[in-house]
Design goal:
The complex is a heterodimer of chains A (about 130) and B (about 140). Chain A is α+β, with helices and mostly antiparallel strands. Chain A has helices at about 5-15, 50-60, 85-95, 105-115; strands at about 15-25, 30-35, 35-40, 45-50, 60-70, 70-85, 120-130. Chain A has four helices and seven strands, in the order H-E-E-E-E-H-E-E-H-H-E. Chain B is built from three helices and seven strands; from the N terminus they run αββββαββαβ. Classes of the chains: A alpha+beta (about 130), B alpha+beta (about 140).
């Protein structure tokens, strides 16, 4: 993975929502608004296993994430993986997703909800940015 | 073609910037943050002839755009038609009306015009509208 400039890392950490585009089977894009946690190296995104974006990423991992703020934009290109292991999904929610979550819940409530909602975590590793510098 | 409800039409007319997505040759998604106009039926967007999105659309006209407002968003799937004939482009701009000036901070001077290559219009016909709120 390439080095991420401090300005880009700062912009990404100052925001928490973006437009995630994945690819459909026919090569056309699919888009959705998501919340992310950026730890300086990769993005963690909570979603449900049956969603189209999770299915698309499992089959075709190249994605794009657009983070916009007024007129400012940063488009991230990279590869995503779907984390399905229950223990790892729980750990990523506890250590990362919780920092951007609106709800407050105990560990027991979280564990129960992750199972009930068939939660998985998308991990997106950036490869390039547009614009290349901020 | 999908019909926009009055609520969707109003939302699209109240905004003018979207994240526009196309598919590259290998199918991977490309996105850009650009202006759009909506006349109640179709979208007018544009860009430079040499841009990646034009190359992508020539190969695969399937595209989508997403307009956000807080945690709410409107997602539109559609098919793009590229128009590069000057006369047709002028007619199209007359149909959609003048483009909104991009917003800038209060008091800021207008930026100098960027050197532009040949512009091409994108006429997008919507096939599906999805209004939703962010989850997760």
């Amino acid at each position: 993975m390439r080095e991420i400039s401090p300005a880009i890392a700062e912009f990404l950490q100052a925001h928490r929502t973006g437009v995630l585009a994945t690819q459909k089977k026919n090569g056309s894009p699919q888009q959705t608004l998501i919340a992310y946690h950026f730890d300086g190296a990769n993005f963690a995104i909570s979603t449900r296993a049956p969603t189209q974006k999770a299915k698309n990423i499992s089959a075709r991992p190249e994605v794009s994430l657009a983070v916009i703020d007024g007129q400012k934009q940063l488009i991230v290109y990279g590869t995503a993986t779907v984390v399905r292991d229950a223990a790892e999904v729980l750990r990523l929610h506890q250590e990362r997703i919780r920092k951007i979550a609106l709800r407050q819940e105990t560990d027991a409530e979280l564990t129960d909800r992750l199972k009930r909602e068939e939660r998985v975590v998308l991990l997106l590793t950036p490869r390039s940015f547009f614009p290349p510098t901020l | 073609m999908a019909e926009a409800t009055p609520e969707i039409t109003q939302f699209l007319k109240d905004h003018h910037l979207c994240v526009f997505a196309t598919g590259r040759k290998d199918g991977s998604p490309q996105q850009s943050y650009i202006g759009y106009q909506f006349d109640g039926k179709q979208f007018l967007l544009g860009g430079q002839e040499s841009s990646f999105k034009m190359k992508n659309l020539r190969r695969n006209p399937g595209c989508s755009l997403l307009v956000t407002e807080g945690r709410g968003f409107l997602l539109v799937y559609g098919t793009a038609e590229l128009v590069d004939d000057e006369e047709q482009m002028t007619k199209m701009q007359e149909r959609f009306g003048p483009r909104a000036a991009p917003p800038r901070p209060a008091g800021a001077a207008a930026p100098p015009p960027r050197p532009m290559g040949k512009r091409v219009n994108i006429l997008m016909t919507p096939t599906k509208f999805i209004a939703n709120r962010m989850t997760g």
